[in-house]
Each structure stands twice: as C-alpha cells, then as structure tokens.
Amino acid sequence: MKDENFLKEHNARQLWHPMAHPGEAQAHPPRIITGAEGVNITDIDGHSVVDAVGGLWCVNLGYSNDLVKEAIAKQLYDLPYYSAFAGTTNPPAIEAAHAVQEFFADDGMERVFFTSGGSDSVETCLRLSRQYHRLRGEPTRTKFISLKKGYHGTHFGGASVNGNNRFRVNYEPLLPGCFHLPAPYPYRNPFNETDPAQLAQLIAQAFEDEIAFQGANTIAALIMEPILGAGGVLVPDQSFMPMMREICDRHGILLISDEVITGFGRSGDWSGARHWGVKPDMMSTAKGITSGYFPVGAALMSGKVAEVFEGSTADGTISHGYTYSAHPVGAAAVTACLSETLRLNLHDNAAERGTQLYDGLRRLSEKHDLIGDVRGGHGLMSGLELVSDRAKKTPLDAATVKRIHDATYDAGAMVRASGHNILMSPPLTISEAEIDTILTALDAGFAKA
Ligand code: PMP
To answer: Which domains does the chain have, with CATH numbers?
Structure first.
C-alpha cells in the first residue's frame, strides 16, 4: 500500500466519490478505511470501530467469512469470466440461480436474472414489467407508481421512481409517466395522520385515486420497499403492503418489491415482503446476496411473470442485460454467501439484535432532545430523525449532525448521516455486546452535540 500522504493527496486529486461534492475532498478528506475484521473496521490512523452501517447496508455476514472469500478466490482460478448472454452460460451461475430461487421460493419467485447491483436490478424489473404487459397485449401499460421517500438507485428508471428530490433534481428531466404516493411516514405526512394504520388506509386510497386518474390500463407497476431504508427507515403498518398488493391485483398492476436492503434477512425475515405476508410479482435484490464481497444483484420473477415470457413468441426475447450478468466469480460469491446466511440463520439474529438496538435508541431519545423520532424494530435497520426543536420538528442543521456523527465515530461506532437522519444497519452477525458499543458511542456522540 502507498503511504498515507500519497493516498490523501491522490484521493483529492483523482477520485470522485458517489454522493459527495468533488470539491470537498481537499477540505474534508474522507476517512481511509484500510482493514476490517468481524463487524469492525479500521482506518488509516489505526482507529477501530464497530461498523454500524455494515458497509452500505450490505455486509450481512461481517467482514471475516472465509468460506465466501475462498469461494471467490477459487473461482478466479477456475474461470474468472464468461458471459451468460444468449448462447453461453457457466456452472457457478447455474448453481447460484438455483440457490437464489430456493432462497425466495416461499415468496413465489421462480426465475433469476443476475445483475451487477441494486440499481441494475431495479432497472431490470422496471423494463421487464413493461415488456410483460406488451407480451400480454397491453402495450399501453407503461407508467410506474412509487412512494415518496423510496430509494431505488441511480439509473434513470430508478431515479425516476425515486421519492427523494435530492437524488432527482440535478438529473431532470427524468422518465415520463412516473407518479409518487405519500410515504408511510407517521412523523411527517400531508394528512397529519400519526396513526400508522390510518395512514396506511389514506395512502391506499391515494393509490386508488391515482389509478382512477391515470387509467389502470396505462400503469405497468408499483415499485416499493417493504420497509423504506435510505429514506429514513420508515416501517409501515402491517396492513400497508397487503393493501397495496390487493389494489395492484384488482387493477392488473405488477407489484415490484425492492428488496435490495430488506432481502436476505436484514428485516428479521428472509425478505421484507414475507414480513408482511405478501408475495410480489418481481423482486429487486443486491447487497446481502454477496454481503458486499463482490458486486452482484438479481432481479427475480414470479411464476406468473415467467409464464408470460416463456410462453411468448420472439417478442419475449429479453433485450436487456449486463456484461457482468451471471459473472462466474460473483455467482460463486452468491452461492457461498447464501449457504452461510442460511447456516447462521442470520434473520433470527437480525430480529433479536434489531429489537435490542431499537429499544436502546428509544432509551437514548429520552435523554437527548435532538432525537425527534426513533425508527426500526424490524430487524437490523434503524434510524433516528434529528431535530433542533421537538415541538416544531425543525430538521437539525447539517453541521450539528456531522458533529454528532464524528463524535460517535471517535467513541467507537461508524453510523451513517443522511440529511438530518442517522441510519444504522450493522452486519447481521453482530453480538449483544457490539450493539451496546454502538449505543454507548451514540450516547457519547450526542453528548458532544
Ligand atoms: N434499491 C434500494 C432499496 C436500495 O437501498 C439501493 C441502494 N441503497 C438501491 C436500490 C440501489 O442499489 P445500488 O447502490 O447497489 O445500485
């Protein structure tokens, strides 16, 4: 590794960072993370902390799973690359597709289309949902409906259904025909409705109204996260997703469950939709599929969708795919990662430790007035919404959020600051003591606000 001065200088000179201002690397250099073990990361100064972010909601197995690392290394020597475009395939891809399909069989998923990440998986679901309707003789069904606060990646399709202006405004005009419903967000919503079940009803009604307004025969799909992650960990009422499913069915609209965060155990069950007793038509996945050890995603299709493509004429050709779709090394990572995820029953630990984290955060909110809302309680995804005035719910200023974030890091935990939210999604292998470390570090962080 080059020395520290080289790394700092060239980070500012050559490397542009996602979701960061390229002019800021000099004034506010990012932390250089040099190593990781278990659930801990170490920076270039030798400071080691619990990674309460799990990379980016992805390192479900923690950083030290040798089985996954060995599977990747071995595959690099056996066959480092071959494409799965029409005409060829490779053994690890076939094995991985089998593993993924079995993993989500109880969600009704029957076919697997590999991608290179979450944005690709979303794009795949959006594009194939249009083709599905075209194949069924309804080519007018092209529009998409999604939730405000939803996050669906950064491709043009994903950004168009994204429900957070921050990720849209610089790249407009986006895809036409995308419409957004209010989020299941009792703390702030246009109805001033604080009861989650009542709010769910109101959003379902808004969905019905939007369908009536647009015309059901123009709408291809509803895309939603079962629990909204990047938008601030918004956990809807348990009635919400089943109601949305029923409305979709009644109007011939496909339901795409964006499980990029919630899939593979993070929500306390193997998928987020299963948590709410819903079977989607398509699922977009990534992150936990390889625990971040290799960039892979997958778009999954139910039997209902598969049947239409497979029984069709030449128009059913999937004119869509990525050079790295079904990459053999990524596929080897998937098979090993899913086998480990199942062996360790990670969803159980996510549920148990998730409750511990959520309860601890609620106790912190009794002590620190800057915490306006505490969210989570369903697996290892939690969020704090920070305010300078609880009664007025005034969002906390960025400088104070950063101070809390940095002081928490100094005290032993990396958390994620996103707008005026602090988000947490640690590895699903985390122990009781390590959750306590996160809570103690946050307490110290707030004390320095
Ligand atoms: N969908 C959801 C629900 C996500 O949380 C994310 C990423 N956080 C994406 C899609 C995009 O995934 P990626 O960053 O791997 O492209």
So the answer is: 31-61+345-447 (3.90.1150.10), 68-343 (3.40.640.10)
